[in-house]
Every structure is written in structure tokens, then in C-alpha cells.
Amino acid sequence: MSNYEATVEWHIQEGESFETRKYSRAHRWKFDGGADVPASASPAVVGTVYSDAAGVDPEEGLVAALASCHMLFFLDLASRSGINVTSYVDHAVGVVGKRDDGKVAMTSATMRPKITFAGPADPATVTALHHKAHDLCYIANSVNFPVTVEPAA
After folding, report:
1. In percent, how much of the chain has pLDDT > 70?
2. Are residues 143 and 101 in the same domain?
3. Cα–Cα distance between 125 and 123 in angstroms, integer?
């Protein structure tokens, strides 16, 4: 098995007050390959004053990880099946709400991939590849909420 690492880094800024909760939630996600991503709490959670709307929030990161994992498995399966994909764009959406136990959590996610093919692509085969990609996606297999795939026409 493999290990995956990320460094999450935050520092109090000049003039901010941690004690009174008046501090920016902006921080950095750093990865071993050199990627350094601005991150933040969601403005929906802490408001725009204490967040950085340009940063990726954890909720967006989770949705992106789900969509990316599905896409990578789909592309691999399509290439192995001789289906030539030229473009894959997914506008994925995650929903945060209250669960039955009253806890706030991501309650569902929907992938909506729009795929362009070079040449013919049998719709039944494409649907089967989406099902297999979903079954193989270990990120989707790791979450406790429904993840659905609704390919765009």
C-alpha cells in the first residue's frame, strides 16, 4: 500500500487576534511534488472577512478529489477499451447539510462529466466505463455519503 502526504500550514498575521477569533483562516496546502495551493475555510462557514475566497476550501477539495479520481479511472478504462477521449470536463457538486444524527457533513456529491470523443463511442460502453470507474475510485469508496455520476449528453 501507499502513503500520501500533505503539509497544511497556517500562521497568525500581524494585527490579527487569535484570542478574539478575529484571524484569517487562509492557509497553504503543500505537496511533495512542489504544488503549493492557497487554501481557506469556506466563506460560507466563517464569512468573507476571515476567509480567502480564492483559496480552495476543504469542501471543494473533497469534491475535486472525488471528481479527479473518477476521471482518472474513466480515462484509463477508456484508453484500454480503444475509446479515444479528447476532452473531459466535470462540474462536480457536493452538498453539505445535516445528517439524521444532527451532525453537519457532506451528504452527497454528484459528478457531471462532459466528455468529447475523437470518433465513435458507444453510449452503452461509455455508461459501463463510468460504472466501473466509480467502482474502482478509492476516494468514492472512502466516503460515507452517496456519490452519483450523471454524464452530460
Report:
1. 99
2. yes
3. 5
